[in-house]
């Protein structure tokens, strides 16, 4: 008699073999839809715990695997901390980094990248869109400029994955970071696209999971949820992006109309559909954030990873918008369930608070 190994969801005896088959099928289905969503091959998708791990894996993986060829890499001053902190650690173990300075709207250019690369440059990492000020970088232009150069190109596309059609070949990237929670999927799961043939040192060593690029038992439930979120995202993305873009422009226009001196940070047009980031002169940042929180308005001075912080962010510092004279910086983000009424109510509250704090 076959040994009893548990029961499936229908009360029938199950086996480790059938459980393994179901897990593999779930992983394969999720991997296939994630690959389809960015124009990649099935074998090029590597699941992990999210954007931070994917960024770490890209930087560590490429620089360490190609160290004999060179120890220089290029990134920007306004990357997510997952890239910047990894870059700084790599510098402590002998690598050399060049940090490109953006312009006042947060843009870097392909010519800047080309000027920075050397014969010893093994990796360029430029985020697709900034998570604080919303500026969208010319990734396809940078990718095209890097063709023919002996260096790999990585982009953190966590912010753009759910709102723009992405194709790794059109973008010209060799590695791409995406995350589930930005498309309303589970937290704690993401993926790194690695073009087939690229030498990459695993961040985690152990078993042979994820084609030996990421050891450890996969979080099958979270990955299956990621796959379902991607399927829904592909259906809803265009409609959602148009709605968010319209509401973003409505929010920007109302703030500019109601609050004199409000300065929009980031690119005026090349920005994420759901991102609004303003500076308010002569307003105390802590007082504004606390007051908004007490009224039920969720806001931050920078990224979600630094929510609650009143210190000028590295992004605002890099674009020259973090001086004391600029006052409070405020990031408001829109989602697919945001309503026009909520936008109007937020502007009313913000206007009232700015007026009160100006008098203090």
UniProtKB/TrEMBL annotation:
EC number: 2.8.1.7
Keyword line: Iron, Iron-sulfur, Metal-binding, Pyridoxal phosphate, Transferase
Main EC class the enzyme belongs to: transferase
SUPFAM superfamilies: PLP-dependent transferases
InterPro entries noted in UniProt: Aminotrans_V_dom (IPR000192), Aminotrans_V_PyrdxlP_BS (IPR020578), Cysteine_dSase (IPR016454), PyrdxlP-dep_Trfase (IPR015424), PyrdxlP-dep_Trfase_major (IPR015421), PyrdxlP-dep_Trfase_small (IPR015422)
One term of GO molecular function: metal ion binding
Keyword Repressor: no
Listed PROSITE patterns: AA_TRANSFER_CLASS_5
Catalytic activity: (sulfur carrier)-H + L-cysteine = (sulfur carrier)-SH + L-alanine
Aminotransferase class V domain span: 9-344
Cofactor: pyridoxal 5'-phosphate
Keyword Transferase among record annotations: yes
Family assignment from sequence similarity: Belongs to the class-V pyridoxal-phosphate-dependent aminotransferase family. NifS/IscS subfamily.
The protein, known as: cysteine desulfurase
Gene: iscS_2
């Amino acid at each position: 008699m076959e040994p009893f190994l548990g029961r499936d969801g229908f009360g029938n005896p199950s086996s480790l073999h059938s459980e393994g088959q179901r897990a593999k099928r779930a992983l394969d289905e999720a991997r296939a839809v994630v690959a389809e969503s960015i124009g990649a091959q099935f074998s090029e998708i590597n699941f992990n715990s999210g954007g931070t791990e994917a960024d770490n894996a890209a930087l560590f993986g490429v620089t360490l695997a190609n160290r004999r060829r060179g120890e220089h890499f290029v990134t920007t001053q306004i990357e997510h901390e997952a890239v910047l902190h990894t870059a700084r650690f790599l510098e402590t173990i002998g690598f050399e980094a060049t940090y490109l300075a953006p312009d006042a709207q947060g843009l870097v250019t392909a010519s800047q990248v080309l000027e920075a690369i050397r014969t010893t440059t093994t990796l360029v990492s430029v985020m697709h869109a900034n998570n604080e000020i919303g500026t969208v970088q010319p990734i396809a232009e940078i990718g095209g400029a890097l063709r023919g150069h002996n260096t790999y190109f990585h982009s953190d596309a966590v912010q753009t994955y759910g709102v723009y059609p992405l194709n790794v070949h059109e973008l010209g990237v060799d590695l791409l970071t995406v995350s589930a929670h930005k498309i309303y999927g589970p937290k704690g799961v993401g993926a790194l696209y690695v073009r087939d043939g690229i030498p990459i040192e695993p961040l985690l060593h152990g078993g042979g999971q994820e084609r030996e690029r990421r050891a450890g038992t996969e979080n099958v439930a979270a990955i299956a949820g990621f796959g379902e979120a991607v399927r829904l995202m592909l259906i809803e993305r265009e409609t959602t992006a148009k709605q968010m873009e319209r509401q973003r422009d409505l929010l920007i226009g109302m703030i500019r109309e109601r609050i004199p001196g409000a300065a929009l940070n980031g690119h005026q047009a090349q920005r994420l559909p759901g991102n609004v980031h303003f500076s308010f002169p002569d307003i105390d940042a802590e007082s504004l954030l606390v007051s908004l929180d007490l009224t039920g308005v969720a806001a931050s001075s920078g990224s979600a990873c630094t929510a609650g912080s009143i210190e000028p962010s590295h992004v605002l510092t890099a674009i020259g918008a973090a001086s004391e004279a600029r006052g409070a910086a405020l990031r408001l983000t829109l989602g697919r369930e945001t309503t026009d009424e909520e936008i109007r109510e937020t502007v009313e509250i913000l206007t009232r608070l700015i007026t009160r704090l100006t008098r203090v």
